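Incident log, support desk, overnight shift.

02:14 A customer reports that sequence design results differ from what the structure should imply. Their input is reproduced verbatim below. On-call engineer (initials T.W.) acknowledged and began investigating.
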């Protein structure tokens, strides 16, 4: 197996888009098959050598950044094994790029509906973080598309699980391995919020055991192969950028589009795939890429919808009525009706997180952004809290994201230590507010190393200890993904 030790060569594995500093490891291993990986992990476990699993390195929380031990990269597990057109299923290895998978599916007339937004993420990374994309408004997060996982556990044992195969119905339910070993999983008592959620381990009585391994951030197993559900490629998708003079109009527009999209009758033809928000500062960043962004706009909404034939006209008509009702710039609304144009819009939307990450890097501090989602009835309360605190602080920031799911990312962009401290306080304030409103501290990015404090706000110290007990049941020597989700103290390691 290829193992690289030259620090100049492997330094890139000590980074992700969190800009968290100080990562280090002795070496990076590049296993090529599951047998080699299994033997390697078995030996590391015997020597109690920490392993950090690396996917595409696009995570925002420092979760693939090692603080000691070794890194295992999944990049050689890069095969799309099968795409079954009739069965609407794909079998893929963990190192396949999101973009390659999307393209291959579409070539066969199929669609990976949840489509995590960042093209260079690995599919294994998206399962390990339960990632979402802008389209999770209609299609949901990665979790619901995962039908089967093949993994290497901390002991080196290979473990495969299918959805529906093992339901954890009791406080101490069992996972049975091929070797005959039975692992008792101590199900926690904490209650997950009723919103889109990727914070800590998925756990509830009666849950499918496969769900424990989705969103586990490399702390419970190394995912090697996945079976993912697909759908038929929609005949057409159109998308639009709608600009507003008043940000409150954009919030009301999004709220009505959300409600109409959820209406089962779809009488008015509005059925969004994504409803995305950009505040004034996010628009400033977009204006640097395209000067056509209206100068007097203080907010924008990007939306997408499937459409075909007569329905398309009806839908476009209904959207135009909504745009007009909420005082948007009707004459300066951008609509993409062709696939090429739509792709340009999607890239334009994606330029926001990319630009923000560039600024974070330039400023030299770790990424300080929220990943909060709250129940729909509390969303305006949360948005007002953001707006008030950001105005008072006067620190550079940009707010964008998945307003359809009551989930926007507030990005604070401190330029010095003083601003950093204030930004950290503001983020914590937002987290406390979200928890009080019944929301989550992480709706899609996970906890990693930079949001552990937030998770404790959400589930309390006992909740953290409950997660640590699950980890110790599956990884008694605590070698996988150390420092992710909870600190070493929770594992009794310091
Ligand atoms: C510009 C930009 C936009 C983004 N937009 C979104 C978005 O809209 N929605 C969203 O959800 N995320 C978004 N992200 C975040 C990121 O793309 C996701 O978190 C993604 O799922 C990370 O995948 P990765 O392969 O890069 O994982 P990495 O960053 O390499 O790792 C992430 C975590 O997964 C673990 N891991 C990786 N592979 C495996 C494996 N095979 N087995 C077990 N554990 C593993 C790692 O140990 C780590 O804990 C964005 C990132 C960027 C840079």
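02:41 Re-run completed on a clean worker. Output:
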């Amino acid at each position: 197996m290829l193992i690289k030790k030259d620090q100049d060569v492997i330094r890139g594995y000590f980074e992700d888009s969190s800009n968290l500093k100080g990562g280090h490891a002795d070496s990076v291993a590049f296993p090529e098959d599951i047998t080699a990986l299994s033997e390697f992990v078995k030996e590391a476990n015997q020597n109690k050598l920490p392993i950090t699993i690396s996917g595409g390195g696009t995570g925002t929380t420092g979760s693939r950044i090692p603080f000691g031990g070794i890194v295992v990269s999944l990049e050689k597990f890069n095969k799309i094994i099968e795409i079954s057109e009739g069965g609407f299923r794909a079998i893929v290895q963990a190192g396949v790029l999101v973009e390659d998978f999307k393209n291959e599916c579409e070539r066969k007339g199929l669609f990976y509906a949840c489509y995590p937004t960042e093209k260079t993420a690995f599919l294994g990374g998206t399962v390990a973080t339960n990632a979402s994309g802008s389209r999770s408004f209609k299609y949901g997060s990665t979790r619901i598309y995962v039908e089967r996982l093949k993994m290497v556990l901390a002991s080196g044992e290979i473990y495969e699980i299918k959805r529906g195969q093992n339901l954890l119905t009791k406080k101490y339910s069992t996972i049975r391995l091929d070797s005959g070993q039975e692992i008792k999983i101590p199900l926690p008592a904490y209650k997950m919020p009723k919103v889109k959620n990727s914070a800590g381990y998925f756990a509830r009585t009666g849950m499918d055991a496969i769900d424990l391994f989705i969103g586990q951030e490399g702390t419970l197993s190394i995912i090697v192969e996945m079976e993912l559900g697909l759908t038929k490629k929609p005949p057409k998708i159109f998308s639009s950028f709608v600009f507003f003079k008043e940000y409150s109009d954009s919030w009301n527009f999004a709220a009505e589009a959300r409600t109409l999209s959820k209406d089962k009758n779809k009488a008015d033809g509005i059925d969004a795939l994504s409803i995305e928000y950009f505040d004034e500062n996010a628009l400033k960043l977009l204006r640097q890429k395209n000067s056509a962004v209206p100068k007097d706009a203080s907010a924008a909404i990007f939306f997408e919808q499937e459409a075909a034939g007569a329905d398309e006209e009806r839908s476009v008509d209904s959207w135009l009525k909504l745009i007009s009702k909420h005082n948007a710039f009707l004459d300066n609304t951008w609509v993409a009706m062709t696939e090429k144009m739509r792709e340009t819009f999607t890239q334009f939307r994606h330029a926001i997180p990319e630009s923000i990450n560039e600024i974070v890097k330039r400023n030299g501090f770790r990424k300080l952004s929220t990943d909060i989602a709250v129940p729909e009835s509390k969303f305006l309360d949360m948005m007002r809290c953001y707006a008030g605190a950001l105005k008072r602080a006067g620190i550079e920031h940009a707010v964008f994201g998945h307003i359809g799911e009551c989930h926007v990312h507030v990005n604070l962009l401190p330029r010095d230590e003083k601003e950093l401290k204030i930004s950290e306080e503001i983020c914590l304030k937002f987290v406390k507010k979200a928890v009080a409103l019944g929301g989550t501290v992480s709706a899609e990015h996970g906890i990693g190393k930079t949001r552990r404090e937030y998770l404790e706000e959400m589930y309390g110290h006992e909740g953290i200890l409950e997660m640590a007990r699950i980890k110790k049941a599956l990884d008694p020597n605590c070698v996988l993904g150390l420092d992710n989700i909870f600190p070493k103290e929770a594992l009794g390691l310091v």
